[in-house]
Amino acid sequence: MSTTWSSWTHRRITPRALGGGILLHAFLIAVALTCLVPFAWMVGTSFKTFDQVLAYPPRIIPDPAVLTSWEAMFSDVPIVRYLLNSVFVTGTIVISQTICNVLAAYVFARVEFRGRDALFLLYLGSMMVPSQVTLIPQYVLVSKLGWIDTYYALIVPFMFGSAFGTFLLRQFFMSLPRDLDDAAKLDGAGHLRILWDVAIP
Prior knowledge:
The protein is built from eleven helices and no strands. By secondary structure, it is mainly α. It folds into two domains: 2-76, no CATH class; 82-199, Orthogonal Bundle (MetI-like fold), CATH 1.10.3720.10. The chain is flat and about 70 Å long. It starts with a helix and ends with a helix.
């Protein structure tokens, strides 16, 4: 152990490796800056007047900086309500999808029943259906249920899991040793107890 550590710490860095590392980091920094420019432009524009926004050549840093856009956002638009709506809808969907994905993945990975693999392949096949195909039928269904302009229309169609999430979790559950399940069953645990105390941790 000490010999390996000593050889590692005293290893010479060749000029070629050093040059390659510098080029790699320079490339990564350039890519990061490229990704940050639109964000910096957006933040800078929020503090500009309308004339500064249309000015040519464009400038990222406003001169002078004004809060007109921010004042209009909080006075003319219920932005806090929009943010709370987003948090509520997204949080509800994430929690419900996680629960459904975990339950479905465990069943497909650990519970033996006739046609399990065929049903799983059929479920995966739903990933190949474009969302544009189901958009109009989904709207008609939501309209018939009277859910237009309600949270139900935003949450219910997306809360029962996803094929991709179920696939990822199933692959993880299949990687767990079956001996853990057998030991839990000997202690009297059922599937839900095994899922909660063995598979999820």
